[in-house]
Amino acid sequence: MIHLFPKLRNELILSAAILLGMIAVFILVFPGAGPLVIVLFSLVGIAAIFFTQYSKAVNKHSSLLNILYNQMDAEGFLREYTPLLKMPVKDRNIYLMLRLHMSNAYCALGRFDEAEDILHTIKAEPGKKPEDELLTRFAVVSNLCYCAEQKNDVDTAKKYLDELIAIRKKLESMQEGKPQKKRMAFSTELNEQCYALLTGGKVNTEALKEQVQRSSQQLHRVTTSLWVARADLAQNNRKEAESILNQIVKLAPHLYPGKVAADLLAQLPAKAEKKD
Question: pLDDT at position 82, please?
């Protein structure tokens, strides 16, 4: 994580150099000091410096994500976050994370082709654990499927949804041999509900509403709420849909969900005038 932020990396190197310099001075002033004490002091000091800088990097990254997911400033997020993709990253999870967040930002702006392009650059490769390759592919396909659904591309969404469900079943099978506390859960519900809505199938609106309520991210709540409103419109629940759409427009008029919500509101037939 520290490698994502050159300033913090440079601070780490400088602090470590200062520490080593202090240790050298200590050895000169106290030549009789035991080597064990010096080694322990060095290790504790370097560890403290590393964890301090690591915490700063984690907090910095969290503040960037907050721009997208809670402030819902997707343009600002892309300006700040795009340079991170050029940083040297060896950790497969960080590599994946960076690109998934970028794809989410593009989706928030309705730039789905760009979101798909960056997702297609992610290669699912074998890792230390048997399921690592499948986990990567599951995350990528989930986002690709959601992109297709938001584009109303039913055929492509079906292709990705079928693959996603197949991967989920494989991952669930791999979890069966693990202790209960170490098992992971894999959900395809959002993609399935969105696909059902697009194809005129039965939609579990309550399941979508539950996703909205459970989410701690404002962007996810707004995006999923749009699907709830569309489901309500499909079920002729105009009052509920209109209320949700107005809220989306209020919260995110500059984002894709807000623009779609505004269009849906404009397409609603005028309410019948009351008779005297």
Answer: 94
